[in-house]
Design a protein that fits this description.
- There is one protein chain.
- This protein is mainly α.
- The chain has a single domain, classed as Up-down Bundle (A middle domain of Talin 1), CATH 1.20.1420.
- It contains 14 helices and two strands.
- A two-stranded antiparallel sheet has the order 1-2.
- The two termini are 38 Å apart.
- 51% of the residues are buried.
Length: 348
């Protein structure tokens, strides 16, 4: 899918933001501009990942798939939108585990009757997601259980989550690398192979796209608060289903393309991996960034968000534990996501 024609919205969105156009127009144009940038990031990452094998490649895809959200979140914090940023963390987790994975399974299942993937990789990601869910739920349970307003618990849990993420990298890439690399193609020698020049071009495109994405993210986050007020939306709905959706575009494009090509190992690594990184890497990074920027953000999620995160992790684990996927499982995941959307829309 070539969406490069949407790059025309980059100067349009920038111009409208500088001109002071209405928030709905600026948000829409900025979102349209971010879509092709996310696709360029996804394609560049995929090209680089092809030379690294599914394990490292999937990790790279998941990481770069979360770059838009991290950048958008930092600019949202800059604008003092802590509640929306927290909601976007929950939204990205729900989006990756339910919507993105569901759409990918549906798209891949339509073309391929049954698709298989590495059970070990899915199992490790599932365990990390359970840990992540616990880490995101504990601050909320703490606040529900006591009148104490100590926000340091969020910082300390962020440190623990980040350490757990580093431990998972050591496990996957060093101590148990052979477990995950069975059957992987040999890495390309990017120094001498003709493919090497394509990889370096991909690196340049990746860098430029990320820089432009940062500019568009500032326009997007600057319009989100007046947009929610104008449309009468809650900060939870805006963060979970507006900001997070834009941030997840790259993961969605990558996951669907891999599933259609029957590369389900990459699809699972990209979706479950992205969900894991949201909780273990992006959330702690945003908490640390908020304190450095002088706009402290805690990890106190609402009751509904806590339940939604727990359900998403449970459903995602149940549908990936057997190492197989079909289009029906994709529909089930999307249906759960849609029902949560209805709930958050009416939540006041």
């Amino acid at each position: 899918m070539n969406l490069n024609y949407l790059l025309i919205f980059v100067p349009i969105a920038f111009g409208l933001d500088q001109y002071g156009a209405g928030p709905i127009v600026v948000f829409t144009m900025s979102s349209l501009a971010i879509i092709p940038l996310c696709e360029l990031i996804g394609k560049s990452t995929e090209r680089i990942a092809e030379s690294l094998g599914p394990t490292i490649g999937g990790l790279l895809n998941a990481t770069m798939g979360n770059v838009p959200e991290l950048i958008i979140g930092i600019f949202a914090l800059k604008n003092g939108l802590q509640s929306i940023v927290k909601a976007s963390i929950a939204g990205s987790l729900l989006g990756n585990l339910l919507c993105v994975l569901g759409v990918a399974m549906l798209a891949g299942g339509i073309r391929h009757r049954v698709q298989k993937f590495n059970v070990r990789m899915a199992g490790v990601n599932s365990m990390l997601l359970i840990l992540a869910a616990i880490g995101l739920i504990i601050p909320a349970v703490f606040h529900f259980s006591t009148a104490d307003t100590n926000d340091e618990i969020g910082v300390e849990i962020s440190v623990i989550l980040f350490i757990a993420y580093l431990a998972s990298l050591v496990f996957t890439l060093i101590t148990h690398q052979q477990t995950f690399s069975e059957g992987e193609p040999e890495k390309l020698d990017t120094r001498r192979s003709p493919e090497g020049s394509r990889v370096w071009r991909a690196v340049v495109v990746l860098a430029v796209s990320t820089i432009v994405l940062a500019v568009m993210s500032e326009s997007l986050t600057g319009s989100i608060e007046p947009l929610t007020k104008k449309l009468g939306l809650t900060s939870a709905f805006a963060g979970i289903f507006l900001l997070a959706t834009v941030g997840n575009i790259s993961s969605l494009i990558n996951a669907v393309q891999y599933a259609i090509k029957d590369k389900m190992d990459l699809t699972i690594a990209t979706t479950l991996g992205a969900g894991t990184q949201v909780a273990l890497l992006v959330a702690p990074a945003l908490v640390f960034a908020s304190y450095l920027m002088g706009t402290p953000m805690d990890l106190h999620f609402s009751r509904f968000e806590v339940v939604a995160i727990a359900l998403a992790v449970f459903v995602g684990r149940q549908l990936t534990v057997d190492g197989e996927s079909t289009w029906l499982e994709g529909i089930l995941l999307v249906a759960v996501y849609a029902m949560m959307g209805v709930g958050f829309y009416y939540l006041k």
